[in-house]
Amino acid sequence: MHAKYVIQNNDEAGIRPNKTFLSLANEAGGPSNLGFSEKDLRNYITARLRTSNANADVREMMNYFMRMKDINPNFFYAVQLDDECKFRSAVWVDARCRASYEYYGDVVSLDSTYSTNRHGLPFASFVGVNHHGKSTPLGCALLGNEEIPSFEWVFTQWLTCMGTAP
Questions:
Q1: At what angle do helices 148-162 and 95-104 cross, to 10 degrees?
Q2: 109 and 38 fall within a common domain
Q3: pLDDT of residue 19
Q4: Which residues does the UniProt record annotate as the domain MULE transposase (predicted)?
Q5: Does residue 154 share a domain with residue 77?
Q6: Same domain, yes or no, for 109 and 155?
Q7: pLDDT score at 151
Q8: Domain span at residue 158?
Q9: Residue 101, class by beta-carbon neighbours within 10 Å (0-12 exposed, 13-18 middle, 19+ buried)?
Q10: All residues at 6 or more sequence positions from 107 whose CB lies less than 8 Å from its CB, including other chains
Q11: Nearest Cα to 38, choosing from 51, 22, 50, 49?
Q12: How far is CA 113 from CA 119, 122, 136, 148, 156, in A?
């Protein structure tokens, strides 16, 4: 517990991991008395930062969704959380996409071939075709994974937003 506290404080203070490791090793009477290596320390820092960045990104996304909803009540979003209240998936549709669906919603495609983001979440877009034969966006989603339940949840939320199936 003491080591975790020192690692977190030193990381927040900008002290390099190798200096933190040397300090902890000196305090314990040598690196063999620590129970972890410098590589373990670096992995711990990386994992901790990745988790805090993911939480910050989810908070920022939720703030954006709420701002958009305040600006335009026709903005729709839905967020799915897992059993531990961690982010799983999200769907969002702005007012212009909803209006476009009324005109160009005869055939809708879900394109999830985009690369995953730094959090490992695949991005998917709902796309229709306008009267000029051009693609027009009809909504977006971040999928928790590319398994059937994730797609079912996304489709269900999107249909809830649009009101009717294509």
A1: 90
A2: no
A3: 92
A4: 107-164
A5: yes
A6: yes
A7: 93
A8: 72-162
A9: buried
A10: 128, 129, 166
A11: 22
A12: 16, 8, 17, 15, 20
Structure tokens at 10: 């030193």
* Six token digits for residue 1: 């517990």
Residues 80 and 139 in one domain: yes
Residue 57 lies inside a defined structural domain of this protein: no
Amino acid at position 45, single letter = I
Q: How many C-beta atoms surround the C-beta of residue 143 within 10 A? A: 22
Helices 17-28 and 38-71, packing angle to 10 deg: 130
Give 32-65 pLDDT, tens digit per residue. Answer: 888 889 898 888 877 776 566 566 778 888 999 9
In a domain, 63, yes or no: no
pTM (two decimals): 0.65
- DSSP character at residue 115: P
pLDDT above 90 covers a percentage of the chain that reads: 45
Name the domain count of the chain.
2
From 1-10, 47-56, 114-123, 144-153, the region with the lowest mean pLDDT: 47-56
Place of tokens 């590589």: 39
Same domain, 99 and 145: yes
| Pair (115, 158) in one structural domain | yes
